[in-house]
Predict the 3D structure of the following.
Amino acid sequence: MKTPENGNPVDARVVIIGLARDCAHSLPQLFDWFSDLGNDVTDWGYVFLENGSTDDTLTLLQEFDGICQRGVVRTFENLDAEISLRTERLSYLRNMALELVRNHERLGGFDYAIIMDLDNINEIFPKSKILSHLRNWPDGQAAVFANQTELYYDAWAYRHPEFSPEDCWELVRKKSTEMSRRAAKYSVLDKIRVPWPADAGMIEVDSAFGGLGIYKLSYIEGCEYLGINDKGEEICEHVEFHRQIREKGYKLFIDTAMINGSGRARHGASVFSRIRRELSKLLGAA
């Protein structure tokens, strides 16, 4: 076992939560990061939920679980057929992951959750910043989110009362009545996707994610993700979850110095996985 970064582990029990689909290309690096972080905290574990991968994602997750034996790995092979809308599917899985943590004999007593995208959005793992937050977590802070250096990629999840008060895609739809959709998209997203300067400190937000968020589990108890509105339309599942957290009186922040990448990495499967998925659709329709 390695020596902890500063001699003694941080007095925090941390569960890493991630949804996995066609992310075999990024998992080996993530596993190294997770194991390394685990050496610097009191206890750690994970809940990984796989759904519909066409690559080796499930095999890699099961192998990691077989070695570590510190959490839960589940697969939902045909979830697309049961829940067709992507954001509804994501909200179902995120809620399931939190439920598995709460009901787990060991993980249910943990202090914090690191909720992460498991693809290559996380080009960097800001371990030192994560440990600093776990070591000095202020009362009333429910979550802290990562920042990027070149583009803030997670525009849909981002809500700030001044810079991004509305659903960015709803704004694009509105502007598309006055200009082309392409022009509307750039008009809206070019403003929202400007990242915060790394020295801007802690920025309070109504919602964010950015591929990595640290949550205090006791503060998010009873809160649920929601991926569709009352009209059955897709909405960003993070926004409603964070609204419920803020309604309880807790605060959310982007730590502008907690950098997890450039923001330019492609969000999703590798080229080969996307080709395999399209081939599977074609063969299934044949």
